[in-house]
Write a structure and sequence with these properties.
The chain is an alpha/beta fold. The chain is built from 7 helices and 7 strands; from the N terminus they run ββαβαβαβααβαβα. Helices cover 28% and strands 15% of the residues.
């Protein structure tokens, strides 16, 4: 269940047929919806070719103006309504969510909400890790539960080429260390694997995170519909990634 970063005057109402008598939100197959993804911004400080290629998101690209983004009050309102319908996990995404100003305030307000069974929601955040080192402790103290960090290579040259802004891999690794020191016990690391581009980095990443307590996941390079240069011959067979 995804919530795009658009301006809503009030929380959306689910179709009546999707809300059974028990008050939970379900899909057409009667499976309960437990997760709500909230995109905090469409902006990102990376230009990864598989996600926000510079050819489409270059200097002239027009991102959403601030007035069209949900403000914190609106986000909390939508989250509250979703939790009342059975949602348990709130995942903050982007763009790059750590670019959103005063993010700690939003996390604190969301952590004060409660699920149907009176528990605090499971708060998760997906980030490229570039700004994590400076924010990890404050986010953990505010109530953030889980982190997912994108990391496509350990080799600095490969990593800089992948993010297309020359950002050093050492800073992302520093962010991961800061997250662990801040007390995050559930950290996932996502690697998008492209044949002939960074596939040689899969084993070094696996060795690096082995025994760390972090979960490394290999993500298939997919056609995201944004002119990301997807080519079938750059996709590794899933069997290789298991």
């Amino acid at each position: 269940m995804d919530l795009a970063p658009v301006h809503w005057m009030k929380a959306p109402r689910a179709p009546a047929a999707a809300v059974p008598l028990d008050g939970s939100l379900r899909d057409r197959r009667q499976r309960p919806w437990r997760d709500l993804r909230i995109s905090l911004t469409d902006r990102c400080n990376f230009r990864c070719s598989y996600c926000m290629p510079r050819s489409r998101f270059g200097p002239g690209h027009r991102f959403l103006p601030q007035a069209q983004l949900l403000n914190f009050e609106e986000i909390v309102q939508v989250a509250r309504e979703a939790l009342a319908l059975g949602v348990r996990t709130l995942r903050l995404t982007g763009g790059e969510p750590l670019l959103r100003r005063e993010l700690v305030t939003l996390v604190r307000e969301l952590s004060d909400l409660r699920t149907l069974d009176g528990e605090a929601p499971d708060l998760a955040l997906t980030t490229n890790g570039s700004l994590l080192a400076e924010q990890a402790q404050a986010l953990r103290d505010a109530g953030l539960s889980r982190l997912t960090v994108s990391l496509d290579a350990l080799d600095d040259t490969v990593f800089r080429r992948m993010n297309e802004v020359g950002f050093p891999v050492a800073e992302v690794l520093r962010g991961l260390d800061a997250a662990r020191q801040a007390g995050f016990e559930r950290i996932k690391v996502n690697m998008v694997v492209r044949r002939g581009v960074n596939d040689q980095q899969a084993l070094p990443l696996a060795a690096h995170f082995r025994g760390s307590g972090m979960v490394l996941r290999f993500i298939e390079f997919m056609d995201a519909g944004c002119h990301n240069g997807w080519k079938r011959d750059e996709v590794l067979e899933s069997a290789v990634l298991r």
